[in-house]
Every structure is written in C-alpha cells, then in structure tokens.
Input
Amino acid sequence: MIRYGIISTAQVVPRFVAGVKESSNGEVVAIASRNLTKAKEMAQELGVPQAYGSYEELYQDSQVDIVYIATYNKGHYLAAKAALEAGKHVLLEKPFTLSAAEARELFDLAKAQGVFLMEAQKALFLPVTLAVQEAIATGKIGEVRRVVSQTAYLNSDMIPWFRDPEAGGGVLYGSGSYPLQYVEFVTGEKITDLSGTAVMKPGESEVQADLSLQLGAHATGNVFLTVQLDLPRGLWIYGSQGTIQVPNFWRGDQARITVGDQVEELFFPFASEFVYEIEHVNECLSVGNLTSPVMTPELTIETVSRMEQLHQAWHKQ
Output
C-alpha cells in the first residue's frame, strides 16, 4: 500500500481522500492542520486514523510514504520544501509554486533527496483526456488550428485569500495551469507565445483574465478565466476537419467529436476524478520513479514561469 499524509483541511481534501480510497493500492493514514481541532474533525469525518496539529509532526510520521499538499497557494513552496527535506515523496497541488525559481529548487531538492515530486494535475490522467489526445493524434479532426478554453466560477469569496496577490490569489494562479497544460498535452504542441490582459482593483488579485496563445506553428488559442460571469465551462478544439468539445475538461467525463454531420459522443463515468492521478502516482512510486513521465518537471516549470511573468506584468508596483 502507498500511504498518504495530507497537509490541509481545504475543500479539496475530502474529494482527494475519496480518490485514494478508490485506488487499488493507496490509503490515507494522516491529516495535518495548523489547527488540531480542524484536523481531528476532518480525520473523523473521512475515516483517517491520525490527526496532527502541525505539518512537522506529519512529516516525521514513519507511516507516511507521500505527502499531498493542498495549502493556500503561497504556502505550497515552504510546505513542499519541508516535506522533501524530511525525506517524503510529495504530490503538490497547483499552482506548484508562485515562481519558476522555487519550482526548480524543489525539483533539485527532490532529486538530491532521492524522492518523488509531482504537480497535482488530475486533468491529464482522466480517461476522456486520453481519448481526446488519441483522437487528435490519429487525425480525427485534421490539423489543430484553434483552441478555446473558458473557466468561470462565482464562488471565489469562499476563499479568504483569493483577492490577495501576495498570497497567490486570483484567477490566473487559481485556474490558469489547467488549460495551459491541458492543451499542450492533448495536442502534443508547445505554447510558443503567451500574452494576456486582466481586470482587478488596485492592490487586489485579478478577477478576470483573457490570455492569447500561439500553439505550435499552425494554431492559436484563447484562455478566458473569470469569477465575475456565469458562463459555460469547457474546452473547444478546432481542427481543419472537425471539432472536439470537452465540458469541464479539468474534471470532465465526456466529450463530443464533430466531423461534418457526424457526431461522436464519448462518455467515461467515474466515482472520483482524482483516482486516475492517484493510480499514476502509486505506480510511479512502486517502480521507483522520482518524477512523472506525464506531468513532467519541464511542463510544471514552464507553466509556473509563464504565469509568473503574467502576474508580474499585471501587478507591477
């Protein structure tokens, strides 16, 4: 069994635990929070045997093989660094870090410690994602010419630090890595140019962002992120012969491929969208991989660097 310890009691944690329980060889053995009461309450709710009132206690727990870190965005770097220094494997939620320098440092540290490190990017491991990737690779919609992504949430105020740019708040760090990494993965093309504009109040994080990208030599794209509008959420890939639509692509279970007047519906039901990523991590640990061949360090660092540059441009002092 691969034994997980979890740092944080954030909203994502119950869903992640459900994914571990559904996996073939994973189990959650501990949860840690800066607030022991919160840790105990969530551990009891989710059936996790151990609760800690500090992250450091979990890092020192010999029963924990890998640490899943889902703290607030700015806290990712320090929490991951401490876990790696304690000799633990780490699965670190997106955004991996707020700077490319921090990302490189963590991967270098993991290599030096001989432990596994990966950015949590569940979207790349979903069955529908792999089906879309195969459809593009086999030329089902011809040559990809345009990609469009739209992510819209209206519940950002539930996150107390969302409007704080120093904490890594805002729509870019909140949701930007999903579409940027997804389009490269399914098309097999690199983003060669990226620019964008954003809407924000002085001193606050951006609540809306519009990104333009060049994908490979023949395609362009648009990524729209907002917490101000209730819009359809999904990804559209336009090829020379057809179109692929993936609703809620970051946790989706279906897609539609349209070629002329022919429509193919893909549907891959699941109980937990996290289980596929967790199965991948468990396999990596079982065979001794220190990095993922899918969610690679290069893809993570590249994405962090792009988001850092955009964030710096938007939030110049």
Remarks:
- The two ends are 49 Å apart (CA to CA).
- The longest strand covers residues 144-152.
- The chain has a mean pLDDT of 96.
- The first helix runs from residue 12 to 22.
